[in-house]
Amino acid sequence: MNRYDGEKFIHFPEIEGLNNSDVFTLYKDNADQIWISTTSNGVHAFENNKFVHYDVPKSTMSFLKDKAGNLWMGCAGGLYRIHPNGELGNIRTNGPWK
Questions:
Q1: pTM of the prediction?
Q2: Low-confidence stretches of the chain (pLDDT beneath 50)
């Protein structure tokens, strides 16, 4: 994984769970946070100069961040949400909608 900061490339060494997986989707939200989905190892966010793993059990195909800070993920076989506090939820017909 490499990142260009406008002047030079920064190489990230082995990132557990990310280097062994296929990157499926990249998303930059309105707070300039980068989200990376994989085909077999969930979602990773680049937060505070490090990668944070979220155990989304399905391949994420699309992302959308709402005004409340919830990250919505359209996945193969479902809709998932990461709440601003980091809580991951599978959205079903009856919610959770809070």
A1: 0.79
A2: none
